[in-house]
Every structure is written in structure tokens, then in C-alpha cells.
């Protein structure tokens, strides 16, 4: 196997996930589902890339992005703020285009990840691994369960270097993930 390039980096991970996707997938044909997801990928992918993030991968009905370098926490929060503020317009445009409504929730978490190329000699891809990735998935699922559009961990919210530029948000009920109590914030978009 050839050498893979991997490094530990401080990053903010953002995950956007479609709410109630399984019932929708059962109702739609594969072409209609593919067209709707393509539009969802473009919407969230454009927002992530527009704020200095990188699309790591599309995971079925989810978009995983990583923000690395510079004030990555601020860039991620700005992307999340745009996702929250443009969500309704995206949903309304889907109705106008006669596409399924793909409402979504977003979670963000920061910390050290392993980032870089993973795989085999035949197939390699860029990926991120570590606790912030798992945390972003948990936060996104929790946002869906709580009926809110987004949740951000305290490491992201409080770690912004230029706090005067941080989007408006509020602290919300903390949660316990295993033995860890995690303080949470929600952008008000």
C-alpha cells in the first residue's frame, strides 16, 4: 500500500442531515430522489465551500463538511448561519419546482481530527476522523429530536477568535453524551 497523507488538525465539523428521510425514500422513485438530493447537495455544499470549508462527503441524505485553518470556528458558524437563514427559501423553491421538501438540521462540533487521504491502493478518498465528527452527528440528530434547525457545541461557539463577528445565538439546554456533559448553543438565524 502506498503512503497516505494524514495529519492531526484542529477543525470544525459540520453535518447537515435531511429530517424524516426514510419515509420519503420509500415514497419516491430513485430518479426523483436523486434529483432532490442533488439540489440539497448543491445548496449545502455551496454554503460550506463559500465559507472556506471543504465538502468531505455526501452520505445518503447528509452533507459532511470540514473547516480547517484560520478562524475555522467562525467560518463554520457563518456557514451554519447562512444555512439557517436560507433554509426556508430552499424549501419554498423545492415546492415551486415540484421537488420533495427536504427539511434539514445541522450540527457543528470542534476539536482535533485526523484529516487526509484514507483507503487502499485502489480507492482513496479524503476523510476526517475523530470525536468532533461523532459529536457533529450526535448534535445533528439531537437538533432533529428537539425540533430545532441547528445545534453547536461550546468548543465551536466559545472558540471563535473574533467573537464580534460571531452570528447571533443563544445557549440552550446541555446534553450528556455518555459521561460527558456538553454545553450547546443554537444560532437564531
- CATH homology-level superfamily: Nucleotide cyclase, GGDEF domain
From the N-terminal CA to the C-terminal CA, the straight-line distance is 47 Å
In CATH's first tier, which class applies? Alpha Beta
Helix/strand class: alpha+beta
Largest sheet: 8 strands, mixed
Strand content: 35-45%
- Taking all Cα atoms into account, the compactness measure Rg is 17 Å
Instruction: Name the quaternary structure.
Output: single chain
Q: State the CATH topology.
A: Alpha-Beta Plaits
SSE succession:
EHHEEHEEHEHEE
What would your notes on this structure say?
Strand 7 (169-177) and strand 8 form a beta hairpin. The radius of gyration is 17 Å and the shape is globular. By secondary structure, the protein is of the alpha+beta class. Strands 1, 2, 3, 4, 5, 6, 7 and 8 form an 8-stranded mixed sheet that branches. 39% of the residues lie in helices and 37% in strands. It has helices at 21-27, 30-50, 72-96, 131-146, 154-158; strands at residues 6-18, 54-59, 62-68, 104-119, 124-129, 150-153, 169-177, 180-187. It has a single domain, classed as Alpha-Beta Plaits (2-Layer Sandwich), CATH 3.30.70.1230. The model has no long low-confidence stretch (mean pLDDT 92).
Amino acid at each position: 500500500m502506498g503512503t497516505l497523507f494524514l495529519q492531526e488538525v484542529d477543525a470544525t465539523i459540520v453535518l447537515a442531515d435531511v429530517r424524516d428521510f426514510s419515509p420519503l425514500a420509500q415514497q419516491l422513485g430513485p430518479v426523483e430522489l436523486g434529483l432532490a438530493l442533488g439540489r440539497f447537495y448543491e445548496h449545502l455544499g455551496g454554503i460550506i465551500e463559500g465559507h472556506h470549508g471543504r465538502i468531505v462527503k455526501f452520505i445518503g441524505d447528509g452533507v459532511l463538511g470540514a473547516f480547517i485553518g484560520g478562524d475555522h470556528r467562525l467560518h463554520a458558524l457563518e456557514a451554519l448561519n447562512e444555512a439557517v437563514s436560507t433554509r426556508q427559501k430552499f424549501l419554498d423553491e423545492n415546492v415551486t419546482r415540484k421537488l420533495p421538501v427536504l427539511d434539514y438540521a445541522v450540527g457543528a462540533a470542534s476539536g482535533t481530527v485526523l484529516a487526509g487521504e484514507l483507503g487502499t491502493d485502489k480507492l482513496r478518498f479524503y476523510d476526517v476522523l475523530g470525536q468532533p465528527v461523532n459529536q457533529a452527528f450526535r448534535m445533528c440528530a439531537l437538533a432533529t429530536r428537539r425540533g430545532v434547525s441547528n445545534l453547536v457545541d461550546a468548543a465551536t461557539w466559545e472558540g471563535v477568535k473574533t467573537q464580534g463577528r460571531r452570528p447571533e445565538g443563544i445557549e440552550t439546554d446541555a446534553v450528556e453524551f455518555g459521561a460527558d456533559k456538553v454545553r450547546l448553543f443554537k444560532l437564531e438565524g
